[in-house]
Structures are given as C-alpha cells and as structure tokens.
Model the fold of this input.
Amino acid sequence: MKDFLFLFRRASAAMPTGSPEEMQSMTQQWMDWIGSIAAQNKLVDRGNRLGEEGKVLRPDNVVTDGPYTEIKESLGGYTLVKANSMEEAVELAKGCPIFSVGGSVEVRPIDQM
Done:
C-alpha cells in the first residue's frame, strides 16, 4: 500500500459558519467519514484543520503574509490515508463532507525520499 495525501480546498479563506446545530452536524459528518476510513484500516493520520494566518517564504529570504484571501481557493486542512492505488484513494475521498460546502479534495501520492 502507498500513502496518499488529501488536501481539502474551499472557496475562500474564511471558516464556514452556521448555527451551532449546523456546525455540529458538519463536524459529525467529518467524524463519520474519517471513521469509515479508519474502520477500513486505511487512515494514516486523521490530519488537521489549518489555521487562517501564515507566512510565505520565497527565494532570497523574502517573507510575506499569507495565505492570501483574494485567491480563489485556500487550503483548509489535510488527511493522510493508505490505498493500493490512486483510484482507490480517489474512491476514499469521494465521501468527503467538504463537497457539501462547495469545496474540493486534491489527492496526491506521497513519494518516499
């Protein structure tokens, strides 16, 4: 099996908002989806939500604020899974709750150094 990275992208840098009940429902959907992957023994790291602030380092030690809110999409978090193929990893990603809020999942293989 290989390791794959799921990168969760959303339409803006802002965190989703809603009533406490809506937020609890969304959290439960994420927990259920991650739990289903763990139940298949394919979860490597449940991942984490990424903070809103950050810095971008560029050549010549240039440091700027980021991520930029004016970009079309921003990274919201990540998860590591294991699968036999890219196709299997994509199938695991299909149940991700981020689709319900217009987001996307980028699936990338982890190449060992």
